[in-house]
Amino acid sequence: xKRLPIGQSDFRQIRKEDAYYIDKSLFIEELMHNHAQTLLLxxxxxxxxxxxxxxxxxxxxxxxxxxxRPLFSGLAIEQSEEWQHQGKYPVxxxxxxxxxxxxxxxxxxxxxxxxxxxxxxxFKYLLSSSKIDELDKIYLHKILMEEASKxxxxxxxxxxxxxLKKHHGLAPILLIDExxxxxxxxxEHGYLSExxxxxxxxxxxxxxxxxxxxKGVITGILRVAKEDIFSGLNNLATYSILDYEFADKFGLxxxxxxxxxxxxxxxxxxxxxxxxYNGYTxxxxxxxxxxxxxxxxxxxxxxxxxxxxxxxSSDGLIKEILPKVNAKAQELLFDLTEGKSVKxxxxxxxxxxxxxxxxxxxxxxxxxxxxxxxxxxxxHSGETLEYNIRIPxxxxxxxxxxxxxxxxxxxxxxxxxxxxxxxxxQRQQTFANALSEYLKTSFSFFDIGKRRSVPEKIYHxxxxxxxxxLSREYHIRSNRESGYGRADLIIYPKxxxxxxxxxxxxxxxxxxxxxxxxxxxxxxxxxxxEKEYLNEIYxxxxxxxxxxxxxFDGKEVACxx
Length: 561
Known about the structure:
The protein is α/β, with parallel strands linked by helices. The protein has 3 domains: about 230 residues; about 160 residues, no CATH class; about 150 residues, no CATH class. It contains 24 helices and 15 strands. The strands form 4 sheets. The chain has a 5-stranded parallel beta sheet with strand order 2-3-4-1-5, sandwiched between helices. A 5-stranded mixed beta sheet has the order 11-12-13-14-15. α9 runs antiparallel to α10.
């Protein structure tokens, strides 16, 4: 089998080295058939955006047409009528994926360096062109020397496109990869308004004039709202993971994964691979896989199924936003972590200022476009619409499990070992005291102490995450049918000779509850007996059962045994 190009995103390098390549060249055909002049194609990270953009660059490049033609030998695009466009246009291709500076001043210096290197490596011949006037050459010289002002830098795409059109007599293809990477960094480091202003002017100058470019493609993770970045681009068409167009051009389809597994000799792993890495829906196309995880699984087959994609995540924005989510979003998120598909309204674009409010629609949209959720069917109409959303696969599920573990931050006063030990030894008061102290000092991920309306599911998820450490030796059942209802948590040993068992029922104190927290815990305890939740444990032969009613109010807790 050919070498797998893990971490490589340069089309030319992959083809010249004869590495394994999954043919996405019909992306060119679909692009040229599309009526829009400029397209925005948001996709999650590591789904092949940069590799596809690199392919476009090599395909259209007029300066190296003959040299790059063999790169497409044997690919599907050779048989397409759009092959006529090979090597016919000047190309501008910039990627911003590495522009993640801590200040706007640093970001601007990185922009200047990027533009200087790009002109130096690709377009120095324009400085000696007889078709270019002296003002254009002076501008390019300032860019090369990193002497251009901010205003001049914002005109870079427009000036370079005009200059290339003068030299070649053809409007260029304009490709911008990962346009939102510097915007994410700006939001994280506190200079969002400056960066949005700069990027708005930078992109508008290059894409606004329909006579200045032949075709434009912009990729990123998020579809940032038009009023934020793209206000000057009246000719922009957006095709996200919710749209039919280009659905099979990013990520791997089921036939492509099947072929890869067959070529590697791992076809017997097909179902396990599907459970772990399948599950995305793009437009109407189901069973889309994350390429990064598939390639790593095949390359490192002896290590088995691993969360390759989520372990390389740069999810600072998500980690920042999740602690701020409102009660509605919290309930939806914890339903999702339990493996449910939920019906919810999501925003199909991102306004960064809205992220500060952490409304459910905005947070779910962020998670969806970032690859942490998938939409199982398409909406009917409107700007913000209802979808059935879910966690796509077992790999991404591990990321949500890590979120639960954030509830279990180490406490200076009491550790989780004391909680678990006192629970397993059925020392009631020690467990109650340890749980109370733990909540006060460690349970802060969702800032529980400042809220008066905290969903019971959050406390349920906290306890489930805590007890997950016991799963090797104990059965842990959540919301399991038992007796005449569903117990919140049932725990019993896998060792049938161990007579112990535990039943936990939770209550959350609402603002209008008149009773005390202790009385609410007693109600929870009574429910265990009234609903006969002990039946399941008894049927497995465990008779020494500790029943617990646990009532929560913010970071306060009361237990009844």
